[in-house]
């Protein structure tokens, strides 16, 4: 099979839709890793973002693109999520869908996500809390290749459906001058993603 190519001139003249921002200036479409230490508030923050996008309300003064949101809250129970919702809003939107269980990447998660996206064509944001909860057993093989492959599977879905897909993840305990170097796992995680965010406490 021959490699399919496109000339630089054809690509230059081609109309491609601009990158959409789900949260203006903050969260574009694509696959993103959102990492932070335990108990710093990652899940609270992403639930706040999910509520703002699903309701179409501004977030910290930034405009949002209203759409259906799927949040896989895989470390929470329904009662815990209910409590968090009650503390964040009095009007939870119908188009924010929450789940406390899903398949893993090795046994059907991608098919589950695609099925949801086909049933809810206006979806623009998917949150997976946490990445580790949906990863299969990586075994003793090449950890970089495993990280890159896992992120790549989810990135293909984000790219095909033009959505933002956010993976909540953890940091290493070891400090680093570059916060992104503290993201747990190999550089394959950040290398395969479109963007990464690190939430840290200010010790100053």
Describe the fold and architecture.
- This protein has helices at 8-13, 42-55, 78-88, 109-119, 131-134, 143-161, 187-192; strands at residues 21-23, 27-28, 30-36, 68-73, 96-99, 123-129, 164-170, 195-198.
- Helix 3 links the parallel strand 4 and strand 5 (96-99).
- Helix 4 (109-119) runs parallel beside helix 6.
- The chain has 204 residues and is of the alpha/beta class.
In short:
With 204 residues, the protein is α/β, with parallel strands linked by helices.
Features:
alpha/beta, 6-stranded parallel beta sheet, two-stranded antiparallel ribbon, 7 helices, 204 residues
Topology at a glance:
Blueprint: H1 8-13, E1 21-23, E2 27-28, E3 30-36, H2 42-55, E4 68-73, H3 78-88, E5 96-99, H4 109-119, E6 123-129, H5 131-134, H6 143-161, E7 164-170, H7 187-192, E8 195-198
Helix pairs in contact: 4-6
**Strand tally, please?**
8
The global form is globular
Order of helices and strands: HEEEHEHEHEHHEHE
- The percent of residues in helical segments reads 25-40%
Query: How much strand?
Result: 15-25%
Strand order of the largest sheet: 5-4-6-7-3-8
Measured on Cα atoms, how large is the radius of gyration?
A: 18 Å
Distance between the termini: 58 Å
Nearest-integer average pLDDT: 91
Number of helices: 7
Largest sheet data: 6 strands, parallel
**Can you tell me the residue ranges where pLDDT is under 50 for at least 5 consecutive residues?**
none
Assign the structural class, choosing from mainly alpha, mainly beta, alpha/beta, alpha+beta, or little secondary structure: alpha/beta
